[in-house]
Amino acid sequence: MASYFLRRLAMAIPVMFFVALFVFLLLRLTPGDPAQAIAGDQATPAQLAAIRENLGLDRPIASQFVTWIAGMAEGDFGSSLISQRPVLEMIGQRIGPTLALAVMAMIFTVVISLPLGVLAAWRHGGMVDRFVMALSVVGFSVPIFVIGYVLIAVFAVNLKWFPVQGYKPLAEGFGPFFHRILMPGLALSFFYIALVSRMTRASMLEVLREDYVRTARAKGLGERIVLFRHALRNAAIPILTVVGTGFAMMVSGVVVTETVFNIPGLGRLVVDGVLARDYPLIQAIILLTAGTYVLINLLIDLSYALTDPRIRYQ
Amino acid sequence: MSASSNPAQGTHPRRRLLENPPHWTTVLAVAVLVVVIVMAAFAPQLANFEPTKLNAAMRLKPASDTYWLGTDSFGRDLYSRVVYGARVSLLVGAGVAIGAIVIGLPLGLIAGWYRGIDGVLMRMMDGLMAIPGILLAIAIVALVRGGLVTVIIAIMIPAIPQVVRLVRARVIAAREETYVDAAVLLGTRPGKLIRKHLLPTTIAPLIVQGTYMYASAILTEAALSFLGVGIGTEVPSWGNIMAEGRLYFAINPWLVFWPAIVLSLCILSINLLGDALRDRLDPKMQGRAP
Question: Nearest-CA distance from B243 to chain A in Å?
Answer without folding.
Answer: 10
